Amino acid sequence: MQATTRHLARYLARRFAWHMLGAAIGLALVLLVYSLLFSAVTGLPAWVVAVVAVAAAVGLGLVPGARELEVTAARALLDVDAELVVPARPRLAHRVRTAAWVVLHLATGMLVAVCLFAVLPGAVLIAVETVAGRSFGSGFPLSAGAPEAVLRLAACGVVGLLALVATWPLGAAAAALAGRVLGPTPHDRMETALARAGREAEHTRLARELHDGIGHALTVVSVQAAAGRRVVAANPDAAADALAAIEDTARSALAELDQLLAVLRDDADATAPLAVAPALDDVVQAHRRAGLDLSATVDLPAGLPALLSRTVQRIVTEALTNAHRHGGPGPVRLAVGQGGDRVRIEVVNPLRGGAGPGRRRAGGHAGGRSAGGRAGGRGLAGVRERVALFGGTAEAGPDGDRWVLRATLPCAPVRTDQKEPDA
Hints:
Helices cover about 60% and strands about 10% of the residues. It is an alpha+beta fold. The protein folds into three domains: about 1-185, no CATH class; about 195-275; about 290-415, Heat Shock Protein 90, CATH 3.30.565.10. The chain has a six-stranded mixed β-sheet with strand order 1-2-3-6-5-4, with helices on one face. The chain is elongated, with a radius of gyration of 39 Å.
């Protein structure tokens, strides 16, 4: 009970302090406006002073730093839980809202001050005069009889009580409005959503690069290590070749991982490109050295766009890695070429026993099973995302006793008949 009482007392004290802050600034502003106006023109009506004072309060809200002070006061004294923003580059909407909040703060503060320091003492003074039957300077006529005295005392009690508790509803209303007035604008929310979407897209891109690059390298390393272990006693030269392949693959994977981690650093250049994907010939040779019976036909013209070339390399890497990791024994066929305005990729490998016929196909995405007939993972999801970026199509699934992955990527044809411009 005591803890609750202390908490309520602190709560009311903070709200009262917020109101008194607005009252002090508002009273100073009114006095300044009054003195300036009456020093220039005498006999001005009160409404003119009020209008000029409100205009001055609006100007005060447009002063740089006013929003920072109001946000700090709202958080500390009004216990506002809503999100309040102090934009680095304030827009017109921010300035208008800040000015409106300053006017509200000063107006409610002065209203509370009038209630507590004018209305409440006045009600008490009138009640005392009514009970004593004599005037103490309030200016109100004394009651003529007992009924009128009772009514006056009741009225003084009601007015005094309302004046005393005025801080509570006005403070609650201000706390409820703070989030709407000092909170983010629709433009702020859009910027936040776009920034969040950008971060999520960057995380997805990094995860895809880690899977494609590091996952491929680990597959080659594991296969080479297993092969070296089997032949280390019977064929030391083959074991040495396997260890050399593991060393080269691990070194390139570490370099790519280091560059990917550098992108995650806070001080990294956001425009820095990721590690260049290995060339198709290097990917083919790496899998052949790892023991994959691979026949490859690669016929791509020079001058492909960098993003398209990288996408083709990553798709081939993922397909061969899946064939190596999940496929059955037997030859694997890779065909990459360009026909007209399309780049076509096809990888065919044997299934690892027991997969039924059928094929999954979808425009712009690969199917949901991995190269060995197992449940699909992040690899085919990466293929789907890469193909979707170009508006292409991909299909992956079992075809009899084989697993087939085909991808088609739109591409403007590379012209080789262009002449050099005249000097």
